[in-house]
Amino acid sequence: MVVADIDGNRAKQVADEVAASGAPVSAVSLDVRASAGCRAGVDHAVQVYGGLDVLICSAGIGQAATPAWEQPEEDWLRVIDVNLNGVWRTTAAAVPELRRSDRGRIVLVSSVAGKEGNPHLAAYSASKAGVIGLTKSLGKELGRDGVLVNAVTPAVIDTPMVRSEGSDPAVLETLLSKIPMGRLGTTEEVAELVAWLASPSCSFTTGGVFDLSGGRSTY
Ligand SMILES: NC(=O)c1ccc[n+]([C@@H]2O[C@H](COP(=O)([O-])OP(=O)(O)OC[C@H]3O[C@@H](n4cnc5c(N)ncnc54)[C@H](O)[C@@H]3O)[C@@H](O)[C@H]2O)c1
Questions:
Q1: What is the whole-number distance in angstroms between the Cα of residue 136 and the centre of ligand 1?
Q2: In this structure, which residue's CA is closest to atom 38 in ligand 1?
Q3: Spatial distance between the Cα atoms of 38 and 87, rounded to a whole number of angstroms
């Protein structure tokens, strides 16, 4: 496994956690805002492990809460560039290798915001809706190549993104109030679903979107 993140320390930290389970893993620092970086990540996997079976795209950024029409253009473009363009660049780099595998899987981390549109988080919501569209197109394009493509749409999961200083506690409170189960999701719960979608056990499901929302999503 290759853990890739723009923050090399974060990649190493996650890789160390994976290594504790005994799995072979290496960490690389890459920036999904550049095609060259995404290709370098794929090349690294091929060099070290001889190929690529699974791509999981989880890198993403949040945004400051603001009405859509007041959002500075550079902020809008930054969120779309990382959360949508970055996912496209990474999948574009990985698909040729995944098609060579006999068990290719792509799992894209979208958000319930992409299905419902969170108020004051328009760029984020639009970027995640774009990831859902990409999932559906890719699923159809790769259906006969044995590469299955699915997305997950978490509601609120307890991670640094949600707890960061820039996050507005009032927004978190509003999001939490929409979850019938009344709590944040955990990273373990996300990992369980992603692991299944990335596994050979997921064999007749592609272009799908899977909620982790504690009951928030209604479609
Ligand atoms: N936490 C939630 O409630 C929640 C809900 C729905 C969806 N998501 C999505 O889950 C994914 C993971 O989020 P998280 O909550 O773990 O956030 P996080 O901030 O903890 O992790 C995001 C990671 O993306 C990396 N990253 C940011 N920009 C990058 C770039 N240009 N190139 C490479 N890596 C980059 C960051 O360094 C960070 O390690 C994101 O796509 C997020 O939008 C999170």
A1: 21
A2: 59
A3: 9
- Whose tokens are 């988080």? That residue is 121
| CB-based contact 95:52 (threshold 8 Å) | no
Q: Tell me the one-letter amino acid at 83.
A: N
* Pairing state between β 105-109 and 148-154: parallel
For residue 12 and ligand 1, the question of a CB distance below 6 A is answered with: no
pLDDT along the chain (219 residues), means of 10: 96 95 94 96 96 97 96 98 98 98 97 95 98 98 98 94 78 89 96 97 98 91
Ligand 1 and 179: CB distance under 6 A: no
Closest by Cα among 79, 90, 109, 99 to 35: 90
Ligand 1 atom closest to the Cα of residue 190 is 10
Pocket test for ligand 1, best of 124, 159, 193 (most atoms within 8 A of CB): 159
**Residue ranges of domains in the chain:** 2-212
Residue 116 Cβ contacting ligand 1 at under 6 Å: no
With a CB cutoff of 8 Å and minimum separation 6, the contacts of 130 are 80, 83, 84, 114
The residue whose CA is least distant from atom 24 of ligand 1 is: 59
Question: Domain 2-212 falls in which CATH fold?
Answer: Rossmann fold (3.40.50)
* Angle subtended by helix axes 35-49 and 86-100, to nearest 10: 30
Residues 6+ apart with CB under 8 A from 106: 54, 55, 56, 57, 91, 94, 95, 98, 138, 142, 147, 148, 149, 150
49 among known catalytic residues: no
